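Researcher: Predict the fold of ABC transporter permease subunit.
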Amino acid sequence: MGRKLLVKLIKFLGYYILGLFGIVALSSAPSLLQGNGLVDVGLYAENTWKLAREIVQPENWVYQFRQEQLNVFAFLWDPYFYSMRILGAALLLGFGLALILALLTQLLPKMLIRVVKRILVLLEAIPDLMVAFLLQMFIVYIFKQTGVHLMKFVTLGDERIYIAPITVLAVLPMISLFRVILLLMEEELTKDYVDFALSKGIRHNAIIAVHVLRNILKSTFYHSKIILWGTLSSLFVIEYIFNIRGLFSFVMEDFRPMVIAAALIMVFTPFYILYQGIEIFTEKTALQMNDKKFIHTFSKPTSLSWKQRLGDYVKGIAAHFRNKRFLVGFAVIFAILAVSVIHTVIHEEPVQNFTLIYDEDGNLLSSKPHPPSKYVLLGTDQNGYSILDQLLTGAKYTILFAGAIALLRMVLGFLLAVPYALFIKERWKRRIERFVDSFHFLPLSVIAVILLAPVLTGTTSGFEYSFTERILVEAGVLTLLVVPLTTVLIGNEIRLITRTEYIDGARVLGGNSNHILFRHIMPHLHSKLGIIFGQQFIQVLLILIHLGLFNIFLGGTSIMLNESYKAWPYSVTFEWSGIISGSRNAFMSGHEWIVVPVFVAFIVLILAMQLIIEGIQEVQQRRVGVRIEKQRWFGARHKLQPPGKSFEREPSPEQFGFVGQENIGRSENHG
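Model: Structure tokens for ABC transporter permease subunit follow.
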């Protein structure tokens, strides 16, 4: 027993050191873009090695503060503890409410449960940034109407606030985990042991409390890591919105690799101890006995022609377009994209600029930013650019870029997942998975801001990099940071498929590796890849919103309208996140019309992609013969049968006949 514990402790420390190596590699990544050419690998390697040496030398742990050199860990400890208190309280509040609400929801009639699930889908589409602004607006409105100040929502100097940021930050984990627990409960309640327990007279509520909750605990634990990953990025945004002097605000003031590494290590360590500690020290010994590769090498390709394969893909795509949810979601996104392209083509100046607006009599009506009127339908931003024109022009860049990044993540993840799942031995898979799993404890938005700000932010004299280079750098950063996670995610899906009985049967019957991969694994993996694409698409949109808040826009951030005066930062492509840059000032100054339309546009886009994901899931359920329920808002339910012929439950006597001896012999001859 002591030896097993020692082995697990060594593995725990080893994976932690691997995670530190990853943090060092990420922290020195800005040097990739600071040398000669677009990417200077030599300078990056030199700075990475330098940072690795400084990490183990306490005298080099320096933070530059007001021309003083302070120990970076000692200096960041107080703001770090402030940020962690907000994050910890938000997670406890959100996860606790999610569990309580999920249990209470199970007491409702099925029709109301479906309504709750629809509401959760809608709430999950609302960006965290909008939730924060809505809370601030609500507090200001109540104060104006009643004179009652519900809570402080901004800090001044060394003042600290807790209630407002904790409330906003708890919304995301609450909604996400609430929905996850409902889905897991719904799946668990379909299992045979539930029917058996009910037949024994055990109450439905007792089954949920004693059996269902215990059985979904492990899956809920794994889902909470994904939720934590998103919450860490939200914490970065919340600190900025509420002007909180937390950990990330000090990181933004000193961009040096040592400061970045120190902050990421401080965030990474407690969550690594919690999640990886639980996983490693509760790992079953039996799982460690299976140390073999599923496939040793690819064999001769199957005889299936490319026309047959193409036909299978076309049939699969056509099946999705027969699903109403998939069709509606796809139609919405395609319509937005088409309108955006048409608007750009037919207008010489796709985005009009209004400095001053006069009425028919020549009287001055307004100066920028202009409120909505018959002259400017949705109003203008601080620079005088039409909000409607920006939405129409920037839609194509937002949709195509998010789609391209999601596709790149999925394709690269799949190409790496196949050898990961099929060729590598189990013990190496576990090591890779443990290392990659550490990325869940690093805030993606913080890393993206640190890496992209020097490249995408322009100066009064223009941009250092060309437009193509800026697009490629942003695409590369947002893709490569997530590829390790998508690789393990897709690889685990492949591993689950390879453990099924029909895969073993195919191997026993002599099916080669290509046959198993393309004829057995891929048909089941197609829907999973579609779902992963949709999830990555939504995640890219949320990252674009976060980057937009910090004036980092797709294609580049221009800070000059012309050479005569300085303007508000704006996107050179007018993609949607460019409108969000002045959102904090817009809400505080009563110019809500500037950002409300773009938030609505993002919500519509996210909801459309969620419909596509649900449609893909329904198509896959029909393919594997799972009975699903077609739900409507008014409670009508139609059970959908698996494809195939339907038979009468009570056959008529005419359907039966007697077979004589001569008929048996005739049948044998035909056989």
